[in-house]
Write a structure and sequence with these properties.
The complex is a heterodimer of chains A (114) and B (141). With 114 residues, chain A is α/β, with parallel strands linked by helices. Chain A has helices at 29-41, 59-74, 86-95, 107-113, and strands at residues 6-12, 15-21, 46-51, 78-82, 102-104. Chain B contains 4 helices and 5 strands. In chain B, strands 1-2-3-5-4 form a 5-stranded antiparallel sheet, with helices on one face. The chains are: A alpha/beta (114), B alpha+beta (141).
Amino acid sequence: MAKPQEIVVRTMGDVSVIDIKGDVTSVTGPPIEAAYRQVTTAGAAKILLVFAHDCYINSGGIAILIGILSESKKKQQTIRMTGLSSHFQKIFGMVGLTKYAQIHPSEAAALAAF
Amino acid sequence: MAAEKKYEVHVPSVLGCEKVAVEFAASVAKAMHFSDDRVEDLKTAVAEACTNAIEHGNKMDASTKVGITLTVADGHLRVEIQDQGSGLGAVRAPDLESQITGTAEPGGWGIFLIKSLMDEVSFESTPQGGNVVKMMIHLER
């Protein structure tokens, strides 16, 4: 039932980029957390989460992202996000995630904002 | 006034099966000419209610079912999602600040989203045992 998930880590200058394709739920969250730990261990201070436009994100996935944002706050990292559909941009705004991680209209815009 | 039309589907209590209910609800809402934004709201609310029913109501027991009933009426769509579990009890509203600072565990956003996205929501216990989430979404908001 879940969409095949693909998490890719790459760097763009001094920004660590995590590409997220597929479901973002409590079940599929661990690989995203692992990618975050990987870039953090490598010393990332700037992290960009790039969601595929058709990502399915539920409240379990939101909890995973909150956990990552909580860790990033402690480590004084900056996290930005892009790729979200207008619906999930609205959802993230309702929850308040945008207070801790800005959403940008494109990867280029997000990278330029760091 | 047109007669109400009722549609019903049951899915097993397996995570991922909520997507069947989501697509079912979305297809009915699209046929009623809800806007794309409102269909997305409905999809999220149905997904969250079904996930709660699977995880918390039916405790992921695959032998149990979650029932989804859609009632189409003039100007609105009524959705009822029923599990076979015991009552969920009081659910505290999540607080993002405390979850970010680590004084609370991240989570608890499902019911928040349902209440935020739907026009009317109630949580009830059924006489046969089980929880039912009743949601209403209006064509005009």
